[in-house]
Hints:
alpha/beta; four-stranded parallel sheet; globular
Amino acid sequence: MLFVCVHNAGRSQMAAAFLTHLAGERISVRSAGSAPADQVNPSVVEAMREAGIDISAELPKVLTTEAVQASDVVITMGCGDACPIFPGKRYEDWKLDDPAGQGIAAVRPIRDEIETRVRALIHDLLPGTGEPA
């Protein structure tokens, strides 16, 4: 599973963290950005801390062709045109507000929407396992 957004400092970091937290070892997760920032958005780090997930040690990573090739599912968040397309991969584009430059109050609803989508994705990818706690 690969989550991609422009800066890999907000949405894709939250999605990857939620998927890792909720699915554990059952799904391999990575995230990347087409133009990665220097650090993860501090409001995103705080919002995830509120949800019980520490992403303070995460760093934005550059999107590579190899990362896309190694993933069965690629979810883009505002940079779909920058992501290489390979046959046989599942692609989705999640329309989400960008938390860049936003305070914690604006990031919380984005975080909650990402968690909802990640839970639905887990249910879709791992049918019969039930939704994780």
